[in-house]
Specification:
four-stranded antiparallel beta sheet; 7 helices; Thrombin, subunit H; WD40/YVTN_repeat-like_dom_sf; 486 residues; Phosphoinositide-binding protein, putative; WD40_repeat_dom_sf; WD40_rpt; 3 domains; eight-stranded mixed beta sheet; mainly beta; Methylamine Dehydrogenase, Chain H; 45% strand
């Protein structure tokens, strides 16, 4: 069955479900921009007819996918269309019948109208013409095929910390926002004159309460300052405990008092270097450090299992990690991805190692089911992990800056990425950016969706924290036009 995919794509992209998305490079006159239309026009259900009499205007009847679109034109309008297309540098156009033939008797008029209909139909089989905005406007299709744009909207923000710390993590639980901060400069004030009188503040945890919605009311409840970085924070499922991963490799466990105040209960001496992973899985605390070691601890503060990955790494270094209930994924300095299977009650079991190829640094990794998403250099690559192999299935490229944080929604085939002063929303099916807007912040190391995915939180390494209201992810995935307010 012959069909056209009216999608303006730069290159074929492997679909997330392992099918190839049909696309072609198309060449347009340089003086106009193609309208982006995302509609599959099946030629077996597509039809165009012209109806009218000598004493009336001509009605254009266009049927696409069982939908009928009608518009009325004067005969002269068709010849104006032809002249306009020639002026817009469309070559090798068929010629419409001479306009004088419409002045004949009714039979001659009917025959000439059929010839004009044939000419008009041919225009629909030209991919360069069907993309032209003037042609779509003439046919009355422009407003039907290009839906009204949807918007994201900036709704709230918190100022940077007075201690010049960057946002390292954000958690939202009912009526409570928890923000973690860490020093991003890698330069301590230790040794400076004022450090004698004032200890270095390298980390911070802030708690904010809100009544009904985080959009309108945020009231600071308390602030905890630390002489070490706060790398990661997670909350237990019952929302009663806060687990804090520190820049010195230790893990603190706090209890929430009835007034939502933090009370430290225990400390786990997990690692001798900063944490790259802190996760709560199968009611155990999983940690990975820059010391290339893994620890599994319980919520009472005892280390139950652990080990070093020195032999597996063979001189390489872990720089980032991600975890799902089934798998732990490590990213290394030499661009290797190492996968381990998570087995409740046991140490993780090695699965496989693969090299991502490009000689660019890995920034972050996230894992979703059988998919691993790696931000490296200015690329975001998705790998599909199966029992016997690992294959690259999607590669996204941003020419401006790397992605420091990622959110993936596999069901909606949507990926959100935080860059230098920018947030982008990608379609994993086509590899295209659906939306991108500037945030007036620095590197975005924290992205989080809350409120049934209707709010997007973004934390930057300059300490700014901002909130955007975004449409439903299904609406974003199906949108043809998208505008954003930063």
């Amino acid at each position: 069955m012959q069909s056209y995919y009216l999608n303006y794509l730069h290159q074929p992209i492997l679909d997330i479900d392992n099918s190839i998305h049909s696309s072609a490079v198309r060449y347009y006159p340089t003086h106009y921009r193609p309208i982006l239309i995302d509609i599959k026009m099946d030629l077996s259900t597509f039809s165009v007819t012209l109806t009218g009499t000598k004493d009336s205007d001509i009605t254009i009847n266009i049927s696409i996918n069982s939908k009928l679109f009608q518009s009325t034109k004067d005969i002269d309008d068709f010849y104006l269309l032809h002249d306009t297309l020639l002026d817009r540098k469309f070559a090798s156009l068929a010629e419409p019948p001479p306009i004088e033939l419409f002045q004949g008797n009714r039979e001659r008029f009917k025959t000439t109208l059929q010839e004009l209909e044939s000419y008009f139909k041919e225009l629909f089989y030209r991919l360069d013409v069907i993309y032209d905005d003037f042609f779509l406007e003439f046919c009355g299709l422009k407003n039907h095929l290009i839906p009204k744009s949807i918007q994201s909207q900036f709704v709230n923000s918190l100022p940077p910390s007075q201690y010049m710390l960057g946002v390292s993590n954000a958690i939202v639980i009912p009526n409570l926002l928890i923000l973690a901060y860490e020093d991003q400069t890698n330069i301590s004030k230790f040794g400076c004159m004022w450090s004698i009188f004032e200890p270095d503040v390298l980390g911070c945890i802030q708690l904010y309460t809100f009544d009904h919605t985080i959009i309108t009311s945020l009231t600071k409840l308390e602030e905890h300052l630390f002489e070490y970085k706060i790398r990661k924070v997670i909350v237990t499922q019952d929302h009663n405990q806060l687990i804090v991963g520190r820049g010195d490799g230790l893990v603190d466990i706090y209890h929430f008092s009835p007034l939502k105040k933090l009370v430290k209960t225990t400390t786990i001496n997990a690692h001798c270097q900063a944490l790259v992973l802190l996760s709560l899985c199968h009611e155990k605390i999983y940690t990975v450090g820059y010391d290339n070691s893994l620890r599994i601890s319980n919520l009472t503060g005892s280390i139950e299992k652990g080990g070093n990955l020195t032999n597996r790494l063979q001189g390489d270094k872990i720089i980032t990690a991600a975890m799902t209930p089934e798998m732990i994924v490590f990213g290394t300095f030499e661009n290797n991805i190492i996968m381990y299977a998570v087995i409740p009650g046991e140490l993780p079991k090695f699965i496989a190692t693969f090299h991502i190829g490009e000689h660019v640094p890995i920034h972050t990794i996230i894992a979703q089911g059988s998919y691993i998403f790696v931000s490296h250099g200015n690329y975001i690559t998705c790998f599909l992990v199966t029992k016997n192999s690992t294959s690259k299935c999607v590669m996204l490229s941003d020419k401006e800056s790397p992605a420091y944080s990622l959110i993936v929604k596999i069901a909606e085939k949507i990926l959100l990425s935080g860059h230098d002063n920018k947030i982008s929303i990608w379609c994993l099916k086509t590899g295209k950016i659906l939306c991108s807007w500037y945030t007036n912040t620095s590197k975005l190391h924290t992205l989080k969706l809350i409120e049934d995915d209707s709010l997007l939180c973004a934390g930057a390494n300059n300490g700014e924290f901002k909130l955007w209201e975004i449409p439903k992810l299904n609406d974003i995935a199906n949108a043809k036009s998208f505008t954003c307010a930063g």
